[in-house]
Automatic annotation (TrEMBL):
Name under which the protein is recorded: Oxidative stress-induced growth inhibitor 2 isoform X1
GO-annotated biological processes: negative regulation of cell growth
Chain intervals with Basic and acidic residues compositional bias: 259-275
Organism phylogeny: Eukaryota, Metazoa, Chordata, Craniata, Vertebrata
Example of a GO MF term: growth factor activity
InterPro entries in the record: FAD/NAD-bd_sf (IPR036188), OSGIN1/2 (IPR029731)
Protein source organism: Lates japonicus (Japanese lates)
Span list, region Disordered: 259-279
Length: 606
């Protein structure tokens, strides 16, 4: 239906991108787009407005196409959902037996139906796992039965493709399929086992030649994982759904206010169409009718641009009946919010440390690197610096006995490198070391009623400090500062640390603030804050995830808008696949009821 339309537009525009074609339009008139709505674009469109626009004569005269589903994000969340929307159905494999007898009995009751057509709430009832989302726990136990007990049982699912159950969709991503995995350091190892990183239908080891580094570790490198995801999309024939190098700048719901009535949070003086209030909250006394495509559902307008050859930016606009947020959580590093955090030697990514080491800007004679944080990213930075013989000052707010430290949740045999860092955090602390006059120790300044200079002593390790870990070689040029926080950074390359009873200043060469990341939902109204479980706080994967229906993953405050993965608290690939199951099940049931499933198995709009 839209295929001929797309070809015509692409010929005029002359796109030469590597991804599949899209219909590109800029504020074109149509039954659902009013000129006044164009003028009232949100601030998020400022970035797109700065991009080169198409000639007016190149624009199609009809309104942009309506896509049943647009998925924003092409990481493992988006890939898995695309797989389920492409007609792949999970059925109980009758040749297997699930170790949970209650769940197995439930599965037997409707074994002739795919899981996506069954009652997910009924199947999830009583299951326990390491996700707050019950469907995530359900899908995980179907794919990896009893994995938390150390077993590697085969999945109890078999996959069949039904092309008549295909839902047309687009997956928009900033790079090639795989998301943030392409940007990670290739030599690191994943926290999860390689088999837990796999997606339905293709065994991870089959694409990595069954590599095993040693008997204690089946973990993978980011390079292996990103290659797996790229190949997965090709082997499953999903390429036609993916549009690479695409940046979304605005997602807004199209709503129509009745003529002559004002609308809160947005005047309606010259037209009756209002774009993107982020819900109908705050419209008491005003009648608001959401624009729809005749099927009873509101429409979303998705805008952005695609980067094609020669760094050309081609803007686009399309309508979607449903939008899925699968953007992950690595967009915006969390900041300390202290004085001097914008100085040029303060960084928020471990890649900046690797770059400084590779360019030989740091060495064993440099002033120490200050690393802030007590998570795995901070531990990776500590290992990177210590392995390069660079001195480290490691600052973190928690006590070394805090039960929430991630290191306490990792088995020593699988994660020896992180337990090495934890041993240093416990035994090589600033308060526990013996004085030393070594000339190369970092300078410490204690600030009380007077200021006096003291040398930061080199830690002297006692045998008892590493009891039970005698075989682990620790790094002598590491000093930990538990229960400390950063007060400020100074332009003379000094940092001020606050302990329990004193302030200390140190001369440093570089700072890495690695205290986590938050999603960047700038393309939504108010950065999507109103979608959170606590709408008064920014969206945070740990502290304030998006509030969703537990079995459909539809946003509680926005029908037709879905969220999955880290945005709803599922930070591990092993569990984010449950979001794909919940969303696919919901959409299949709704569209089947409306008679909107595609019988020819193809995307008829690209």
């Amino acid at each position: 239906m839209f295929w001929r339309e797309c070809v015509r537009v692409l010929v005029v525009v002359g796109m030469r991108g590597g991804g599949p074609p899209m219909v590109w339009s800029v504020s074109t008139p149509g039954p659902h787009s009013h000129p006044a709505a164009v003028e009232r674009g949100a601030p998020a469109l400022a970035q797109a407005a700065a991009m080169p626009l198409l000639e007016e004569t190149t624009l199609p005269q009809e309104h942009p196409p309506t896509v049943p589903v647009v998925i924003i994000g092409n990481g493992p969340s988006g890939i898995c959902l695309s797989y389920l929307l492409s007609g792949y159905k999970p059925y109980l494999d009758t040749a297997t037996v699930h170790p949970n007898p209650i769940l197995y009995r439930k599965l037997q009751e409707t074994k002739h139906l795919p899981i996506t057509e069954q009652d997910l709430e009924y199947l999830s009832e009583g299951l326990e796992g390491r996700s707050r989302n019950p469907v995530a726990v359900l899908f995980d136990t179907l794919l990896h039965p009893n994995a938390d007990f150390g077993y590697e049982f085969p999945p109890v699912l078999q996959w069949r493709r039904d092309k008549q159950q295909h839902i047309p969709h687009l997956v928009l991503g900033r790079a090639t399929p795989g998301g943030a995995w392409h940007a990670m350091e290739g030599s690191m190892l994943t926290i999860s086992l390689g088999i837990w990183m796999e997606l339905p239908g293709i065994n991870y080891r089959d694409l990595t030649n069954g590599k095993r580094r040693d008997a204690t570790s089946d973990r993978a490198t980011p390079e292996e994982i990103s290659s797996y995801y790229r190949n997965y999309v090709k082997l499953k024939g999903l390429q036609k759904n993916f549009v690479d190098n695409t940046y979304v700048t605005s997602v807004q719901k199209l709503c129509r206010g009745h003529e002559g009535e004002g609308l809160e949070n947005g005047h309606n003086d010259q037209g009756d169409v209002r774009v993107g209030d982020g819900g109908n909250e705050g419209f008491e006394g005003n009648r608001v009718e959401c624009v729809n495509n005749g099927g009873g559902g509101a429409l979303w307008e998705v805008r952005g641009y695609q980067q094609v050859q020669n760094d050309t930016h081609v803007p686009f606009s399309l309508f979607a009946e449903n939008v899925v947020l699968a953007t992950g959580a690595s967009d915006s590093p969390i900041r300390l919010g202290v004085e001097g955090e914008d100085l040029p030697f303060v960084f928020h990514s471990i890649s900046d440390l690797g770059l400084a080491v590779s360019r030989r800007k740091l060495d064993m004679n440099s002033d120490p690197v200050l690393i802030v944080g007590a998570g795995l990213s901070a531990a990776d930075a500590v290992l990177c610096a210590c392995n390069s013989n660079i001195r480290v000052l490691h600052v973190f707010r928690k006590s070394i006995d805090d039960p929430d430290l991630i290191f306490k949740q990792l088995p020593k045999t699988l994660y020896p490198e992180y337990h090495k860092v934890y041993n240093m955090m416990c035994s090589q602390t600033y308060t526990n070391v013996a004085p030393s006059s070594a000339p190369n120790r970092p300078q410490a300044v204690s600030i009380a009623s007077s200021v006096c200079a003291k040398m930061c002593p080199k830690p002297q390790l006692a045998a008892g400090n590493i009891a039970g870990n005698a075989s682990v070689s620790l790094f002598p040029d590491y000093t930990g500062f538990p229960e400390h926080c950063v007060v400020s950074f100074q332009s003379d390359m000094k940092c001020l640390l606050q302990g329990k009873n004193s302030l200390k200043a140190f001369k440093i060469s570089m700072v890495l603030v690695l205290i986590g990341t938050n999603p960047n939902l700038f393309f939504l109204k108010g950065q999507g804050q109103y979608l959170g479980q606590d709408p008064t706080k920014p969206i945070s994967c740990k502290q304030n995830p998006i509030d969703i229906h537990p079995y459909t993953f539809e946003c509680a405050k926005e029908p037709g808008l879905f969220a999955m993965g880290p945005l709803v608290g599922d930070n591990f690939v092993r569990f984010l696949k449950g979001g794909a199951l919940g969303i696919a099940s919901c959409l299949l049931k709704r569209l089947k009821k409306k008679g909107k499933l595609i019988s020819n198995g193809g995307n008829n709009f690209i």
